[in-house]
């Protein structure tokens, strides 16, 4: 099978031909139909949460496909089932890490990877779904959509009188806007450096937009819009300055939720921290704390019933050989938004 392999940090992925290993206990072989490219993989390429000693390895943590084969002990799915692939744990147990063989040697893998034609995954990283949605849309329920919905529905208690601000409206951030809009709060402020992404956020329900490139003082702009700081700030970028803002620029008793991960060895420093002693909360989220067994199907049904335009979350579709182009767009294009999706036959 063909797979995109990370062979060294800060470099392009390489396309290898790999031999699929025999399945061990609690492993499932999935024929992948589509895979979303998340910012987390861009960070992994740069060494965030992955070390050189684990290379070469496969990547990817959100996808969709069809079960091809099951290993010993697997009961939750059967060959032919349509599944969403996700990094959050669902029912079942962790399998051992699969290893693939190539002419270059052994290639490592995690409990879920999606940048390949087939993938050996742990049974607790897939969820069977009942839907007619296109596989490209389904892939987004592995991370982007479920994380966004989970942040709003599981981590905070957003009400109609509240204001919420989202720092970064990329793939996850747009879905946080969608989830917030469904709660009908008083104000939804989207903050980003890209007018393209901000306009998408407005399309999905943001009431106010702030482009940080054109805003010399974001504190003053928030006050100008709201007359006060918001009750909820959601930070999706991992930028250490925005993480600091997300906590400092809260109303008393407010909550800041950290979705994006900062770079290795970065420190968060507050000056005169006593000014923040007004019952505020700073928390980080693990994928919106979702339960994949329950919430993936719920959100598939919700997005379908609300006629949310899933196609407007996808910038474009690509084949596996174009994966480095997708990473380049994510990092450098002024026009990119949402997700780039890798599609397989």
How are the SSEs ordered, and which strands pair?
Blueprint: E1 2-6, E2 14-17, E3 27-37, H1 39-45, E4 57-58, E5 63-70, E6 82-85, E7 99-102, E8 105-108, E9 118-122, E10 126-128, H2 135-139, H3 144-155, E11 163-167, H4 171-183, E12 187-192, H5 195-203, E13 208-211, H6 218-226, E14 232-235, H7 240-248, E15 255-258, E16 281-284, H8 292-305, E17 314-318, H9 323-332, E18 339-343
Parallel strand pairs: 11-12, 11-14, 12-13, 14-15, 15-16, 17-18
Antiparallel strand pairs: 1-2, 1-4, 3-5, 3-9, 3-18, 5-6, 6-10, 7-8
Helix pairs in contact: 3-4
CATH architecture annotation of the largest domain: Alpha-Beta Complex
Computed structural class:
alpha/beta
Element order: H for helix, E for strand: EEEHEEEEEEEHHEHEHEHEHEEHEHE
Q: In oligomeric terms, what are we looking at?
A: single chain
């Amino acid at each position: 099978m063909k797979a995109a392999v990370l062979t060294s940090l800060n470099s392009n992925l390489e396309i290898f031909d790999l031999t699929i290993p025999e399945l061990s206990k609690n492993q499932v072989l999935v024929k992948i139909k589509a895979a979303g490219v998340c910012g987390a993989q861009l960070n992994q390429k740069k060494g965030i949460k992955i070390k050189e000693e684990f290379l070469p390895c496969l990547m990817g943590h959100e996808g969709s496909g069809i079960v091809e084969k099951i290993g010993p002990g697997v009961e939750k799915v059967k060959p032919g089932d349509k599944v969403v692939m996700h990094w959050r744990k669902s029912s079942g147990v962790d399998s051992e890490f699969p290893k693939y063989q190539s002419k270059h040697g052994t290639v490592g893998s995690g409990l879920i990877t999606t940048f390949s034609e087939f993938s050996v995954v742990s049974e607790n990283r897939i969820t069977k779904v009942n839907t007619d949605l296109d596989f490209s849309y389904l892939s987004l329920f592995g991370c982007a959509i479920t994380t966004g919905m989970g942040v709003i529905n599981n981590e905070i208690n957003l009400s109609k009188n509240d204001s919420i601000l989202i720092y970064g409206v990329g793939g996850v951030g747009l879905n946080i806007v969608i989830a917030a809009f469904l709660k009908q709060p008083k104000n939804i402020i989207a903050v980003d450096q890209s007018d393209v992404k901000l306009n998408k956020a407005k399309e999905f329900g943001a009431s106010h937009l702030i482009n940080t490139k054109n805003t010399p003082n974001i504190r003053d702009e928030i006050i100008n819009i709201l007359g006060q700081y918001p009750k909820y700030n959601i930070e999706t970028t991992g930028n250490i300055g925005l993480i600091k803002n997300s906590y400092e620029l809260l109303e008393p008793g407010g909550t800041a939720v950290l979705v994006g991960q900062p770079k290795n060895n970065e420190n968060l420093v507050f000056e005169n921290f006593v000014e923040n002693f007004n019952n505020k909360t700073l928390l980080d989220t693990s994928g919106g704390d979702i339960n994949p067994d329950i919430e993936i199907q719920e959100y598939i049904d919700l997005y379908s019933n609300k006629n949310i335009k899933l196609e407007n979350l996808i910038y474009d579709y690509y084949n596996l050989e174009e994966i480095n182009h997708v990473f380049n767009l994510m990092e450098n294009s002024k026009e990119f938004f949402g997700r780039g999706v890798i599609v397989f036959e």
